[in-house]
Amino acid sequence: MREEFQADLNEVSRLLVTMAEAVRAAMRKATTALLTADLKAAQSVIERDAEVDEIYKQVETKVADTIARQAPVASDLRMVITALHISADLERMGDLAEHVAKTAQRRHPSPAVPAELRPVFKGMAEVADRMAEQITDLLAKPNSELAAQLDQADDEVDELERQLFKILLDDDWPYGAETAIDGALLGRFYERYADHVVNIGEQLVFLITAERVTDQS
Fold first, then answer.
1. What average pLDDT does the segment 204-211 reach?
2. Which among 74, 151, 154, 175 is least surrounded, fewest beta carbons within 10 Å?
3. Which residues are CB-contacts of 31 (< 8 A; sequence separation ≥ 6)?
C-alpha cells in the first residue's frame, strides 16, 4: 500500500512540474507577444491555456482518487492537499499569461504598450520568469530555504509595478486613458503571477516543515 501511495505522489509531482514548465513558457511567449505585437505568439498562448487547465483537472482527479483509496493521515494528507493548492496557483498563473496574450491580441497590429513602458514590462517579465524557473526546480527538488526566499524576488516585481504607476500617473502621460488602463492591468497581471509563485513557495515550506510562513511586513 505504501509503495502504491508513493507512486501516486510521484505522478502528482510529475504533473505539477509539467504545469510549472507550461505556465512559465506561456508567460514568456505572452511577453513576446506583448512587446513585439506578435499575433501568432498571442494566439498560441490563448489556445494552449486549455492544456494547463487539463493538467489541473488531472491533479484534482489524482488527489481525490488517492485520498479515497489510501485514506492518508497526518503528513501524508498534508502532501496531497498541498499539491492541490499548488496546482490551483499554477492554473491561475496560466490564466494570467493568457490575459497578457489577450491584451496583445486585442491591440494588434499596434504594440500593446508604448515604448516608455517597455523597459518596465521587460523587467517585470524577466523577474517573473526567473521566479517561475525557480519554482519549477523546487517542485522537482523541494528546498524550504530556497522556497522561503522567493518573496525577495517578488519585492522586485512590486517595485517595478510602482515605477509603472509613476509613469502612468505622470501629468505628461501622452497616450490617453485606454492605454493607461491597459498598462495598469498588465502590471497587475505580472504582479499577481509573481504572487502565485510566492504562494507556491509557502506551500512547499509548509510541506517540508509543517510550519506556515508568516508575513513579516
1. 87
2. 74
3. 100, 121, 122, 125, 129
